[in-house]
Amino acid sequence: MQRIHLAVKKILHALLAAATLAAQEAPKAPAEGTLTAFLDRNSNDVAPQVARLTQEIFILKTELIVSNFRQEYGDRIKMQRVSYPTSTADKEAIPGYIFTLAKMPAGKKLPALLMVHGGNHIQLSADWFPWIAAAVERGYVVMYPEYRGSSGHDETIYENNYGVTDLADVLAAAAYLTTKDYVDAARLGILGHSRGGLLTLRALEVEPKRFAAAVQLAGLSDMVAFMGYKSEARRADIASQKNFGGKLPDKNLPAYIAISSAFFIEKIETPVYLMSTTGDKTVPYQLHNKRVAESLKAYGKTFGEHLYQDAPGGHEFPFVDSTEGRDCQKRAFEWFAKYLSP
């Protein structure tokens, strides 16, 4: 029996080592002269026309969102659209937003928050407006990166590569934000929801000294488990991404482990607060945050947790104007205030 246990332990160790190596492998720089493949704007075929039209609609949606925010909050909050460099070898420029008070205190360095959206091809939306406004009005600078996998910024940004380009773009956003002369790099926090929650914890694991505090909302933490209960179409879509090489977990397990925050909790040094709800049909608590909380506790990490009971909105509960949604925002900013001193 002891030999079996040792053998299993060696296998798990080898698997995790392979996963870690895979996670650290950065995309190679393209050869000089490599051209970008753009959607054909003049095609007579239906599929390219629909793809082009889809991107144009997303871009128009972005302009509408920007206009709506400025109309509602522009008298007190400045929204700056930025294009910042990412850290991958392709030297891609990533779109994003920086939010500050309309009237900034002169010569003062402020704490800052990185807010990371979730979803598959999602972008800044009105759901995030109250969170952004609440943060800025509490004295924070906020950056909202539209990492690769987001919509609204054409096909290059639209392309998904879970756990690789999205994480690189979020970490690059953090580095970019700390270059601003009005930001205190020692008081940087990060908050993410769903996929953004996965990226939040992975950011803490990859750069454990970068952030002073973190909040994770209904976060996805285990891509192996996630692939086990998603629809066949969704599984195929995820597997088709470059990082997975068209293979499901049974054929390429290390790649799925490598991007899953649940397997690297021991690397976290940042105080983190988790919030979840029962009845979450997208990232069930039992499969995701329950395991993260148990691991944080087992490793002796500084963390907090709150579980709501069937909060209105389910997976989207942080964005609902309900008792639970308001309490979630209150707890998040109390956690940040404790470590970032706005």
First-last Cα distance: 55 Å
Give helix % range: 40-55%
CATH superfamily grouping: Alpha/Beta hydrolase fold, catalytic domain
Rg to the nearest angstrom?
20 Å
Written as H for each helix and E for each strand, in order along the chain, the element string is HHEEEHEHHEHEHHHEHEH
Mean pLDDT: 90
Global morphology? globular
Please report the number of helical segments. 11
Decide which structural class fits the backbone.
alpha/beta
CATH topology: Rossmann fold
Number of domains: 1
CATH architecture: 3-Layer(aba) Sandwich
Tell me the β content.
Answer: 15-25%
Uncertain stretches of 5 or more adjacent residues: 1-26
Q: How many distinct beta strands?
A: 8
Query: CATH first level: which class?
Result: Alpha Beta
The largest sheet has its strands arranged as: 1-2-4-3-5-6-7-8
Largest pleated sheet = 8 strands, mixed
